[in-house]
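The material for today's practical consists of a large collection of protein records. There is nothing in a record beyond a sequence line and a structure line. As an example, a complete record with its sequence and its structure tokens follows:
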Amino acid sequence: MRNEAGEDFRDLFLLRPDIAFLNHGSFGACPRPVFEAYQELQLELERQPVLFLDREFRQRMAASREALATYLGATADDLVYVPNATTALNIVARSLLLGPGDEILTTDLEYGAIDRVWEFTARRRGARIIRAEIPLPVDDPDAVVDAIWSKVTPRTRVLSISHVAYLTALILPIEPLIEKARRAGILTVIDGAHAPGQIPLALDDLGADFYAANCHKWMLAPKGSGLLHARRAVQPLLDPLVVSWGWESEMPGPSRFVDHHEWQGTKDVAPFLAVPAAIDFMEAHRWDDVCLACRALLRSKIAEIVGTGAEPLCTSEYAWNAQMAGFRLPAPDGAVLKARLYDEHRIEIPIVEWKGQWLLRISIQAYNSADDIDALIAALTQLL
């Protein structure tokens, strides 16, 4: 894929040229200009760490949060930077005062690390985890909403679901669920790890109580940059994972939420401060158009992928997918297939076992071309 100047986007990224990289969803990939801005920030930190981390820290972080908030349709003092979405969801889960018999409603499509966060919490609180099953392939978004909401009981205290399910790549219909939960007095916790930079967001309008996300995936920021957004009314429910100078600060800022969670001792904050560079990169390259082109490329190849024997995980025209799509594979051993795709065909793509079946997830980013997908199709045709 090329930009308006005729440059191949692949040349603007640091990825190895010998790999068909179809796994942007796992850890992202940082463009060269953004990575250089990140490294310059690290150098600046090392040259004068007292100036950087003491005298300038608060204003630098405020400016970066403001840029991120503008991009996400949020208020800057209602979000904080964290290393990743998992950290954000740990803050939420380990803060909520759940009691014996309280229920945490989630789905069977959630990220394994977040399943463990809630298991950890439930064991210590005496709470129960209820998992709504989402039959695949999905067709009707209303049926998905009904499948989840049918598990609500008078004991339901938390609804924790993904915005974009990590393995299936399905965009779940969270808006009506958030509205239903608000009316029922249920806290909503959204795992938006794959959303920013892949689908449009307006967090203030969305109205989730807590929204966790990554900047280092589809937003193209350096590794170690994520965020937690919390509605103003529920921010007092949250305790910091690390208690430091921001707790009962002698020099409080405009938001106690920010004070409690932003300063956690000496660490490299360059990934957070490089997020505006990632936003500038996307604006300079008209990233909305790039995302649409990536979606179009993926959709144009779905029939050929299905032709290898893979089964799609959605069957309707509803917008279940953006730049990722999931498929069920007729492979007896997906781990072997994944290894052969990499070792023999130099294709990086995730294949994960889920409920006794093997699922493949393909990600399309600006640096991908039709040739990458064609290589996958040829390899699957041979190996399956």
